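User:
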Amino acid sequence: MDKMAEKPNSYTDHALAERPVQSAVRGKLREIVNAPIDTHLERIEMFMDRAIRIPGTNLRFGLDPIIGFFFPVAGDWLGTLVGVYIVLASIRHGLPKSAITRMVFNVGVDFLLGSLPLVGDAVDFAWKSNSKNLRLLNQYAKGKGGSVWSDWLWVFMLFGLLFLLGAGLVGLAYYAIRQAGFRLF
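Assistant: Predicted structure:
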């Protein structure tokens, strides 16, 4: 072996490290590594959770609290359906079941607490379940096509439990209103 080949040339190594082209390439690599897994989900999340910035602050909100405010019941359902779509589209990236569970929990909190009159609008403004779910996707994704049938079964079981919980709360509210002497139908 040649001893010259083994010894690094500190002058050329230092010169290469200082070149602006290589630092630009390094910066581009950082952008690629930190890029979102699924750009269409990133756009949906941006519109629903952080499209509008309050001037003079770093506070951002999206269409989710606006839709929920102007269309009280239908807006909350629409926001939940968008959240469910993000979770279902994320499953194909091979997330662990713990991440899937957290994503469904985020959507559930957004739906259940966001459905409350007036308080729900503040929850929609602060909770930002779509942003939380996109962070989970970018953190735990294994790659496209990494899901198995048990992942899909798991997410549908969780959403089924969430639906039953929501239906039970609606039934309980209806029962309480009837017991108070009000007639709804």
